[in-house]
Every structure is written in C-alpha cells, then in structure tokens.
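To the wet lab folks,

You asked to see what we're planning to order before we commit. Fair enough. Below is the target structure as tokens, and below that is the sequence we designed to fit it. If anything looks off to you, flag it before the synthesis order goes out.
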C-alpha cells in the first residue's frame, strides 16, 4: 500500500530534499544539488512561472511510513506545445516499477484535472538550463544544475509508456587540445579583417558585456519561440549573480566595427566545489566554498551558451571567436576539460558546432513525453 503526501509543511519540504541524498548515498558519482536551488523553483516570490502556472510536490511512502518516491508536477501556460502539456520533475524513486507507475498515475490525474493532454518529464518548472531531462547515458558526476539519476530510471519511464520527445546531448573535449582545422580556416579568413575583434569579459565593465549579451541573445533566439526573450534587467541580474564564479578568461565576445555579433559564454564547473557542501549553502558552507574556490583547482569548464547574430551565421564567425578564445585560455588557465551543456537533437546547427569543435559525446539525457490519449500519434520535437 502506497500513501501520498502533498508537500506542505517544513518537515515534508525537508524530506523532499533529503530522500535523494539517502537514495544515492552509495553512488560516488552523485552530487547533491544545493537545497536553495531546488527550493527556489517552488517559491512563487523567486520563480516567475507561478504568474502563469502552478506546481505541487508529492511524497510517496510505503506501509512502514518510509519514503519510496517523490515528484513535482506543474502546469505552465507559457510552455507552448501542440497539445496542452504539463510537466513532472524532481522525480526520484526506488527501483520498483509498481511504485513508479503509481507516481506517474498520480501526476497524470493531477494534470488531467487541469486540462492537460500530455506530460513531459523529468523537466523543470522553469527554463531548460537546469534540472531538465532523464540521464540515460554517461553516468559520471553531473555538471552544476544538471539532473543525475540511476540507470534504471530509463526503464521506469519507458515501461510506463513515456517516449523520447527529444534527446539532450553533451559533448566534451580536452581544453588544451588543438583547435580544429575548419575553425583555423575560419579564423584565418576573419582575422585579416581589421573591423573584427574578440575579447574576454571584463568584470569591471560587466554591464557593457551584459548589454552585448542581451543584443545577441534576443536576436538569435527570437525565432525559437516559447518566450525565450530576456529583458535587459534580467540579463544584468544574471551577470551580477554569475560574477563571483565567472572566470574572465573563458567568457568571450566577437565584434564587427565595435558591434557585438557573437558570444561564447563559459564558466567553471561549480559542482567541483559544491560537491563538498552536501546541498547546504549557509554561512559555514559559503566559507567552505570560498576556501575550495581559492585552494581547490577546478579542472573543468562548462559551455553555457553560444550565439551568433542571424545575419552572421554560416559565415565562419564561430571559428574566429573560438580560436581567439582558445589561444588565450590555453595559456592563461589550467583547465583540463571542457564540456558543453546539453544540445537538443533537434538543433543541427549547434550539433554541427560540437562536431567542428572535435568533441565526443559523453552524456545523454532524454526529455520524455506521455500522451494521455494512447491512440494519438506521437510526434518528436520539431527541428529548429
């Protein structure tokens, strides 16, 4: 007999955070996410998605009162899909199909009551940059903000009837490996143009680089739809939040006649420091973080975002920018590895960039979809 508890009080919120820590206690690859990052998702004062949606968390317990699963379920009116589609996320479960089916049925019922016709999982009540997807290949230590789960989660989802809506692919390379031949050709072409320049972020002039990011991001992502635009205030806030962990040597912009045309934003993998904090980030943990940040060498940096203005795409600008950046950080830093945050298998341009970077695929996550009408034809994510 499985009982269901809606997460309402402090004890239940704590259990929602602590259950995964117990579940993965013997898994050396597991890195506990920061509690504050998870709690912020369900705080209406911090998560703007509550303005257009709702979310509820549930705990699932066995007859002995022991937690055997948890999940969050949500609807977001800005999550535009072919049919009304809700989401489930922060799913954790023991290795038992019956328990997983009970959890998924509970989510389905909750979503149907709110007019949904499908559910995606395991996803976030927010942007795709954090807590998105079910890990199905590459069970190594996760990057900061990336989901991690046991290999059996794949079977729990697929045995229930979920199908892969899209795959999320991560690519890696050695930081000091030579840049690819094709990028060197692109660089040689544009470096002859005196109007071209590339430079790393300078924290002293952070607002200027935030404005350049704003210009490139909104023009490059406006065709993607789904509310991808960002306000300048949001971008400045993002940059100021990133400032303490930003490494100026690995965040770069390219310019033509002084106007921003491309960006390659990377940061150190924060999980190489956060893994020592056991999910906490109070005063003591902040001191620990500063200690590890100062004395514990970080060996991996992470590609957060790469963007080129539409009018400059397919003209070799990406090669120019990447070679300029690599020539600098390969001298000025001691990073050993580079990993790109996931790229959707629906994005051939970014997959092509990963190929030209001479990377190899090292991690795969899946965004699963379950159609409530089992006779309806399943369609994968459209190409962009």
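Sequence we intend to order:
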């Amino acid at each position: 007999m499985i009982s269901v508890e809606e997460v309402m009080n402090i004890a239940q919120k704590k259990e929602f955070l602590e259950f995964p820590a117990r579940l993965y206690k013997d898994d050396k690859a597991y890195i506990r996410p920061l509690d504050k990052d998870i709690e912020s998702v369900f705080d209406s004062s911090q998560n703007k998605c509550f303005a257009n949606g709702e979310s509820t968390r549930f705990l699932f317990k066995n007859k002995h009162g022991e937690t055997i699963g948890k999940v969050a379920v949500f609807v977001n009116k800005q999550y535009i899909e072919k049919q009304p589609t809700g989401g489930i996320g922060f799913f954790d479960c023991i290795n038992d199909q019956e328990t997983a089916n009970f959890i998924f049925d509970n989510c389905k019922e909750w979503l149907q009551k709110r007019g949904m016709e499908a559910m995606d999982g395991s996803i976030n009540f927010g942007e795709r940059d954090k807590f998105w997807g079910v890990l199905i290949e590459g069970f190594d230590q996760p990057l900061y903000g990336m989901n991690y789960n046991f290999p059996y989660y794949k079977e729990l989802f697929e045995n229930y009837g979920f199908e892969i809506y899209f795959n999320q692919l991560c690519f890696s390379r050695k930081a000091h490996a030579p840049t690819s031949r094709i990028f060197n050709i692109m660089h040689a072409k544009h470096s002859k143009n005196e109007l071209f320049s590339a430079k790393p972020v300078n924290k002293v002039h952070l607002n200027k680089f935030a404005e350049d990011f704003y210009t490139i991001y909104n023009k490059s992502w406006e065709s993607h739809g789904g509310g991808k635009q960002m306000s300048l205030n949001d971008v400045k806030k993002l940059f100021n939040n990133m400032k303490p962990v930003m490494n100026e040597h690995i965040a770069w912009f390219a310019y033509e006649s002084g106007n921003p045309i491309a960006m390659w934003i990377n940061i150190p993998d924060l999980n190489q420091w956060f893994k020592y904090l056991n999910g906490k980030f109070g005063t003591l943990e902040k001191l620990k973080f500063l200690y590890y940040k100062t004395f514990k060498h970080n060996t991996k940096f992470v590609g957060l975002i790469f963007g080129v203005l539409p009018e400059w795409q397919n003209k070799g600008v990406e090669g120019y920018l990447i070679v300029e950046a690599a020539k600098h950080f390969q001298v000025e830093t001691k990073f050993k590895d580079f990993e790109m945050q996931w790229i959707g298998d629906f994005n051939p341009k970014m997959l092509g960039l990963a190929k030209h970077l001479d990377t190899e695929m090292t991690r795969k996550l899946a965004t699963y979809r379950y159609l409530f009408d089992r006779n309806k034809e399943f369609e994968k994510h459209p190409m962009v």
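Structural context that might help your review: The chain has a mean pLDDT of 95. The longest strand covers residues 163-174.

Thanks,
Computational group
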